[in-house]
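Researcher: Sit down with what I've pasted below and flag anything odd:
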Amino acid sequence: MTAEEAVLGLDTSCYTTSAALLDREGNLLADQRRLLKVKPGHRGLAQSEMVYQHTRNLPDLLEALDLSGRKVAAIGVSAQPRPREDSYMPAFLVGLGMARSLGKLLGVPVHRLTHQHNHMYAGLWSVGKTAPDRFLLTHISGGTTDLLLCERQADGEFSLEPRGSSIDLHAGQFIDRVGVALGLPFPAGPHLERLAGEAETPYPLKVWTEGGNLSLSGPCTKALRAAEAGADPASLALGVEQAIGQGLGRVLQAICREEGLQQVLLVGGVSANQEIRRCVETALAREGISLWVPDPRYSVDGAVGNAWAAVLREKQEGR
């Protein structure tokens, strides 16, 4: 019996080690992930510690993949954070090195992508949509608040061009700083969301915006002072969510008007927050702009997007 083919995705981001398998039609066969460990009270890891943990985690995740009756036909991997020549983080070398080694040993193609393209393709795979030729990718996480114009190129690939961002803190940093100040574990996103669900009213926090840019350092400072002064934690958590969501909504409206866009794809760990999603969707609906929101599991870091991108590239190249 001939083994059926599968496509492997790998991603070693700043805080998650991931491996995923799709079949040639894009059906999910396996999705293995492991969060990196951060000591209580700390707000992150040094790159050297990330590399160490990814190096330990990745073999375990690959061994957990069930390849019974299947063979790997291609590999998709995050090679760098962003599509820029100067974009580099050591953490991504762990996944890239494993992909190169497996590709050579198995004699299969290795498709290199960026972490942002991985999120884009994971989002498109999750919502089950074919991307329009032009749309806005909103990537919000602990390390990014990137509002990117996506345009299909002649070769079928998508360029990602910055159209807006936070001028200081990223959305995930805002959440983590306030969350840790409230005694929540790092990364604080899911814990802060649960806490916010207990609030009756949000603590008021205002976000400055202009065009496609927003500033989060001011409301973060105000929130930290409020936490120290004994403000209600649940109210403060909800205030942080709404400040981010409403600020994002305004800048997305401005960019879509400027670029003539009708479609926004929301990805990244912070975008899994339901209150932030609600605020953004409400703002865009007022402008008649459609928002695609993936399943929260495929909004956060994972390798499914790299596997899906590799499936699509293999089809495009006739393999």
